[in-house]
Design goal:
heterodimer; A: 2 domains; 4-stranded mixed β-sheet; B: alpha/beta; 2 domains; 4-stranded antiparallel β-sheet; 10 helices; about 30% strand
């Protein structure tokens, strides 16, 4: 046992001390945190007021452009040509030209600007014009805007799970989806990234010819398992460091910029509710806030309803189980070849189930309890990813238990197969190996 | 006996690598394991190191059946050898010593002694890839013997060394023998076999074709050839030559003759001496023993026929 410990220690320490590991450890959280921080930072940056001159031939719209703290609308000179010249001269952000149509109610406009006009500006103008045109159309047909408002309905579906004992739980498909996707992708990358490291480690030992020295001191199986476990610890360390560093960065940022963040979050909430109800933002203010309050309340309910111990527990299990299952196979591939260039023919059958799992993800999420989802979450080569997609939606315990047992059996089986290939493969040099040879190796006596 | 292998058989799918090979390695001796490429030497060495197991046959270490823990008392320098390129020399040597059962502190202690002895202490913190091939071989030699094994196995140890280091290594191997270790020495280099081996085993095509003490093997294969340095008349010598003697080779320098005589079976060196004393003035006489090279080629060719 102490020898396996020595091997694990070496595999772990040599990798953790590598420059690439240290760089990746710090770069990862920076990237992740910046995905969250940069949009906030940018939106705080662009607080200058944009001046937009308006040439409104219809005369209907100009008054309606009230603007806000970011946008100011001014009357342009009446000639389009002169107005365009003025745009550059005055340094205005844009020129909005609304031509007078021949027959119907005006519904087109042109924005002239030096740079591409921002989406915010476009959406604002569009919203204002649409509202005005609709109001005119309503008036033309004699419909009272208030009547219309009273008709407008917002449908919101709460999904509530009921179990056998009649206990109810509010759930959110979106949250389950995000949670499942996130953990599945994490497992996928972990298996690929660190499985490949196992393979490269084996090839390194073979090509540097140190292998024969080492296996005269330890059993090939000890060396293989030591490598697999050592690299698992490397992956685990990296993962934990990422979690810790990312949350430190995010919380640190949150603490340092508390005030800015509050205003940002407020505007965000209003923006999203505007997104839901694009028309008449002012009139429906009250109902809006009610719905969004309800919405948030539901979200919190759904968030708290998720069984985190099950998710976290099964995540760790499938994370580790999937890695161990595949790492043994990667080690076997590494032992059978002389260089990384020769690995392709053996990598195919290993990567196909992994890639298939990710490709099927959308399908699984759409029907997390269908037959495809069920069988793929039982099959050990696909279960680590597929089961993690399903678990946030709620999976009966017996299914998780069966899948976990099958994964353990699968892991023992692949390790057994891999060990048989490994102990022969590491002593074979300079021979191109095919599947036929691999098959024979399984039956060699040690 | 320190180590014995009895009737070892190892079969692979297509061929038999070892077919009833036996070796006996006495205490404190150097044992040469000889044979052409593909004879089965490496397979036998791997079996002794318990890297692979034999299909048939038994192995004994100090009279007891070979046990898994005996690997702590065996040191092995393979022909295909290398080190982790990215690892530092000292760190790597400690790791390999620990795998052979030394504690970390003992490993450091022993390594420092050897590094000083070989005058390579300043390599301790270098990465292996910064060292030349010869330098790496020195490190490998040290980690092979660091745990003071009773049995050492060197597979082609001199390949890749320059003559100075070959000499250094030979001295160390002889020192290890003096200190009580036995050495199995696999090689094609017959000159080094004659120089340092006490016993040999010649394997060809999976079978033992010759085994025993170097001196007795040489005696066994001697052709009764004697080189005589003498003064006198060659013509007279030839005329008087008895039928049991034949002259193989003759050279003349500084007035004296050097002649190789072959004695037929059934006659003794004394018969040659009697003849010489009556026909010449003898300056010197010595027996010509076959070189290991000749024995090797002779036996390998004979076993193929």
């Amino acid at each position: 046992m102490s020898k396996i410990n020595l091997i694990i220690q070496r595999e772990y320490l040599t990798r953790v001390k590598k420059r690439s590991f240290i760089v990746l450890t710090f770069l990862g959280p920076l990237l992740m945190a910046s995905i969250w921080i940069i949009p906030i930072y940018l939106s705080n940056l662009s607080k200058e007021t944009k001046v937009i001159s308006v040439l409104d031939e219809t005369g209907v719209f100009f008054d309606k452009f009230t603007g806000d703290e970011n946008m100011q609308f001014i009357q342009a000179v009446p000639q389009l040509k002169a107005a365009k010249e003025n745009l550059n001269k005055m340094g205005n952000y844009a020129l909005l030209f609304i031509p007078k149509p021949d027959l119907h109610i005006p519904n087109t406009a042109i924005i002239y600007s030096e740079k591409q006009a921002s989406l915010d500006v476009k959406n604002y103008i569009k919203g204002v014009m649409k509202k005005e045109i609709e109001a005119q159309k309503l008036a033309a047909r004699g419909i009272n805007p208030e009547t219309l408002l009273s008709i407008k309905t917002n449908v919101f579906i709460s999904s509530i799970k009921v179990d056998g004992s009649g206990k109810e739980e509010k759930t959110s498909t979106e949250i389950s989806m995000a949670l499942g996707m996130f953990s599945a992708i994490l497992i996928y990358f972990f298996i690929f990234l660190f499985g490949a490291q196992v393979m490269r480690g084996v090839i390194e030992e073979k090509t540097s010819r140190i292998i024969e020295v080492i296996i005269s001191s330890v059993k090939p199986f000890q060396l293989m398992m030591g490598k697999i476990l050592g690299i698992a610890l490397v992956g685990f360390t990296q993962f934990m460091l990422w979690v810790i560093l990312t949350s430190t960065l995010v919380f640190g940022f949150q603490y340092a910029y508390q005030d800015e963040l509050k205003t940002f979050q407020n505007t965000q909430i209003i923006e999203t509710s505007q997104g839901m109800f694009p028309d008449s933002p002012t009139e429906t203010k009250i109902t809006e806030t009610q719905t969004s309050n309800e919405n948030i309340g539901f979200l919190i309910d759904a968030l708290t309803s998720i069984d985190y111990t099950i998710i976290l527990g099964s995540f760790l299990f499938y994370f580790l189980g999937g890695y161990l299952l595949y790492a043994a196979l990667f080690a076997a591939v590494g032992s059978a070849v002389d260089s990384e260039a020769d690995t392709h023919q053996f990598m195919m059958p290993i990567t196909i189930p992994l890639i298939l799992s990710i490709v099927m993800a959308q399908l699984i999420i759409n029907d997390p309890n269908g037959p495809i989802a069920f069988w793929m979450s039982m099959f050990p080569l696909t279960s680590p990813i597929i089961m993690m997609l399903r678990i946030p939606f709620g999976v009966p315990y017996w299914e998780i238990f069966t899948s976990a047992t099958l994964l353990i059996i699968g892991f023992v089986f692949t390790t057994w197969i891999a060990a048989k290939i490994y102990r022969i493969g590491i002593l074979m040099y300079g021979k191109k190996i095919g599947y036929k040879e691999l098959w024979k190796w399984l039956f060699y006596k040690a | 006996m320190l180590f014995e292998a009895k009737n070892i058989v190892k079969r692979y799918a297509a061929h038999t690598a070892l077919d009833g090979v036996s070796i006996t390695v006495p205490e404190q001796s150097i044992f040469g394991l000889l044979g052409p490429n593909g004879a089965g030497k490496t397979t036998l060495i791997r079996i002794i190191n318990q890297i692979i197991g034999p299909d048939e046959g038994e192995l004994y270490f100090e009279g007891n059946k070979l046990h898994a823990n005996d690997i702590y008392r065996i040191g092995y320098l393979p022909e295909e050898r290398g080190l982790y390129k990215k690892m530092k020399v000292g760190e790597q040597a400690i790791y390999l010593a620990q795998l052979k059962g030394l504690s970390r502190s003992a490993a450091i202690h022993e390594l420092k002694i050897w590094f000083e002895k070989f005058e390579i202490s300043d390599w301790w913190n270098k990465k292996v890839e910064e060292l030349s091939k010869g330098m790496q071989q020195k490190i490998q030699f040290i980690v092979t013997i660091i745990h003071k094994p009773k049995l050492l196995i060197f597979d082609e140890p001199f390949s890749g060394f320059d003559p100075i280091n070959v000499h250094l290594l030979k001295q160390e191997i002889l020192n290890l023998k003096e200190q009580g270790a036995s050495i199995i020495f696999s090689t094609h280099n017959m000159a080094s076999v004659e120089e340092i081996c006490d016993h040999i085993c010649l394997i060809n095509q999976s079978k033992t074709i010759l085994e025993g003490e170097v001196n007795s093997i040489k005696n066994e294969f001697k052709a009764n050839i004697y080189e005589v340095e003498w003064l006198g008349n060659m013509e007279q010598m030839k005329n008087n030559l008895p039928s049991f003697l034949s002259i193989l080779d003759n050279s003349n320098s500084n007035g004296s003759n050097k002649t190789k005589f072959k004695i037929d079976k059934g006659n003794k060196p004394n018969d040659l001496m009697k003849f010489l004393m009556t026909n010449s003035e003898v300056l010197g006489l010595k027996e010509i023993l076959p070189s290991m090279d000749e024995i090797f080629i002779q036996n390998v060719n004979a076993s193929i026929k």
